[in-house]
Amino acid sequence: MIPRIGILLILSLYLFAGISSQSNEYDATIRTMEEFSGYQIHEPTFHDSSSSSLSVDTETLQRQIDELSTFSDVPAPAVTRILYSEKDVQARGFVKNLMNISGLSVREDAVGNIFGRWVGSEPELAPVSTGSHIDAIPYSGKYDGVVGVLGAIEAINVLKRSGFKPKRSLEVIMFTSEEPTRFGISCLGSRLLAGSKELAQLLKRTVDGQNISFSDAAKFAGYSNSEDLSSVFLEKGSYSAFIELHIEQGPILEEEAISIGVVTAIAAPASIKVDFEGNGGHAGAVLMPKRNDAGLAAAELALAVEKHVLESGSVDTVGTVGILELHPGAINSIPSKAHLEIDTRDIDEQRRNLVIEKIHQSALSISKARNVELSEFKIVNQDPPALSEELITKATESACQELNMPYKKMISRAYHDSLFMARISPMGMIFIPCYKGYSHKPEEFAAQQDIANGVRVLALTLAKLSIS
Asked: I want to staple 229 with a disulfide (CB 3.0 to 4.6 A). Which of 36, 170, 200, 307 is the partner?
């Protein structure tokens, strides 16, 4: 047994350690006392072995997800939450309140990106960030994006309950308008954070379907400084790491009974608009050899998209004709105009761009062969894909191993705010299973245990990145 004077000495050294922990000389004294007494004098710090203490309050988190889903313009189980709408404003208040309850320092920028920071012991270091979005396309579900926001706040709570104290600050971000629903621009908030001057200029003249300007819509939501969007831009290196928790939005994890997906790359889309114009005419009176059918040109191009994508030789190359509109749209009228919108994606930018060029060449040859005009072939956007940083994927894999979570390395075929955060800092993503891979529909669902698994992996990964 240690004499009373020895215990007092150890306690006094413990208190002194809190004041003079930066002194190398004193640290050596502490180590000597620890070795002599057999007792730990330093305040316990977070170690990987304490991962067993990472307990998620699953019931409270599910209640929060359910409550957030009530801020919707349509009845349950569907969710519609459009940028800067009344329900969006209410939902933002809900998230900020949860951040405040968790002891985070909350701020917002000029477009409504919301930041909640847990200040670390070395706040001068670049923080580690995490987060996602809460806006929802019409008649979608309640988990897309939301798990990455509310789950991130809970991950902070998990670390606080475990006694962890971060070195680098930890920051939760709720991004504005990941969905393109209102203004036709996806990942609006994160694109601006990444410093898109082109988008900042475009938004000055952008209106929605009701001819409401972006600026007026932002002011309705309380963002009166939205005309100066350069204030949103972040410098490269503003964060040491960014990691996003998200439902997979695909069936692989559920089908293979795997708890966690460690995302290695995010495929990026290129969007193309194509217009053909022909002569039209009566469906019965104009004979087949005399026709200049814009509809058939569009149909042939749609098949050419599939052909060129398959010819790429990679399963990671995909292409979709999501919109095909014919004018005048009558059963007994030969289409005089056809409009297509094409989405093609890949994790290899050069391979994707080669597919785009082949689609363009096919459009030209089809218009010539069918004697119709190719009046427009416009690449609307052509974002580069992003690779996850090895530092982050290794930290996530290590967290999975310590938590005994089966995991799978995989790419994200949908794109997320992480794609643009990769332009600011090293990036990574964590996927959890979702029912049948459903997303963007009311049937979207993630089980409580799967969400809890993702939150625990996120929490441990954040901890590892914070002390690095």
From this structure: 200
